[in-house]
Every structure is written in structure tokens, then in C-alpha cells.
Specification:
Shape: elongated
Helix content: 25-40%
Strand order of the largest sheet: 2-5-7
Distance between the termini: 107 Å
Mean pLDDT: 85
CATH architecture of the largest domain: 2-Layer Sandwich
Order of helices and strands: HEHEEEEHEEH
Number of helices: 4
CATH topology of the largest domain: Alpha-Beta Plaits
Radius of gyration: 28 Å
Length: 186
């Protein structure tokens, strides 16, 4: 009985000693360190808590965070949605009778993006959608601070077409197809 009590006291004393060592050892804030420095593991003293949002952790250059789409450069090819392993990208395209314009890299646009949504709640941040994009309009940004109270807020809509515009473009395509069929029958 006495041995058990003594062992419990010694164990508690060791734990308290470790806690007090951290308490007095963390009198200053630790500086941001570059992991590539040779003495990175030697400089591990100080408070490790980052005072967010005043301080932020350094972000690696090759990190994968928030997806962003430059919709003006998108040719609505649907390759990103096909490459996505979790189906978090939803694209709906409307054909145009004539070329709409050109992207920044010179690709001809022939489809309107009626819908281009990315559900970041489903996204697994693999980056496959950015790799297959021929116009490089979908990229991963360094923005990681996304907190919402609702999962529906994690669905980002990148299409800038209104419902009226979508209906108008669909009518244009339908009438173009009808004219084309009528011309074939003559």
C-alpha cells in the first residue's frame, strides 16, 4: 500500500515538473522558422500557439488549399469534373452558334458556363482538376481560412450567368438547331 502511494506521488511529481518546465520555459513567443534551416530542431523553445488572426503560420509554396476558377478563361471542357475522384465539380454548358471569344491563352470559347460549382465540403484537395485543365483557369490558391456554419456555404458558384441569360442562350441554341434542320430539309 505504501509503495503504491509513493509511486503515485513520484509519478505526479514528475508530471508537475514537466508542466512547470514548459510553463517557465515558454516565457517568450517562438519565431516562425523555416524548416529548411539546418538548426530548425534546435530552436524549439517558446510558446508554440499562434495568435490567430494577428499571426499566421507560413504557408508552403506547393500547398493545396482553396480552389479558384477564372471563369473568363474557362472553355467549359468538363475535364476537371471528369478527373475529380469525389465528384465535387458540377458543370453545365450551353453551346453557342458561333465562337464567343478567346481565353487569355488564345483558346477559342464555344460554350457558355451556365453552371460551374465546386463543393469544397466534398473536395479532397488532390489537385487533379488543376492538372488536366487545358487553359489553366482552375488553380489552387493559398487561402486556407474557410470556416462556415453551414455546409451549403462551402459550395462556390463560379458561373456569372443569370437565369435570364441562361434561358436566352438556350433559346438561341435551340433556334439555331431548328434553322439548321430546316435548311437540311430544303
Amino acid at each position: 500500500m505504501f509503495r503504491k502511494s509513493l509511486k503515485a506521488f513520484v509519478t505526479a511529481w514528475k508530471g508537475l515538473g514537466i508542466t512547470l518546465g514548459h510553463l517557465f520555459g515558454a516565457r517568450k513567443s517562438r519565431n516562425s522558422l523555416n524548416i529548411r534551416d539546418e538548426d530548425y530542431f534546435d530552436k524549439q523553445e517558446g510558446i508554440t500557439t499562434v495568435q490567430y488572426p494577428r499571426e499566421k503560420m507560413p504557408i508552403p509554396e506547393v500547398a493545396r488549399y482553396q480552389l479558384d476558377v477564372e471563369i473568363d478563361d474557362c472553355i467549359v471542357c468538363d475535364l476537371c469534373a471528369k478527373a475529380c475522384p469525389v465528384d465535387c465539380i458540377t458543370i453545365e454548358a450551353i453551346k453557342s452558334p458561333e465562337p464567343i471569344g478567346k481565353t487569355s491563352d488564345g483558346s477559342v470559347k464555344r460554350l457558355y458556363p451556365a453552371k460551374f460549382d465546386i463543393d469544397m465540403g466534398k473536395c479532397m484537395y488532390c489537385g487533379l482538376c488543376t492538372v488536366v485543365c487545358p487553359t489553366e483557369c482552375i488553380v489552387m490558391t493559398d487561402n486556407y481560412d474557410r470556416s462556415f456554419q453551414s455546409l451549403t456555404a462551402l459550395t462556390y458558384e463560379f458561373s456569372n450567368m443569370s437565369d435570364a441569360e441562361v434561358q436566352q442562350r438556350r433559346k438561341e441554341w435551340t433556334s439555331f438547331q431548328a434553322e439548321k434542320e430546316a435548311a437540311k430539309k430544303k
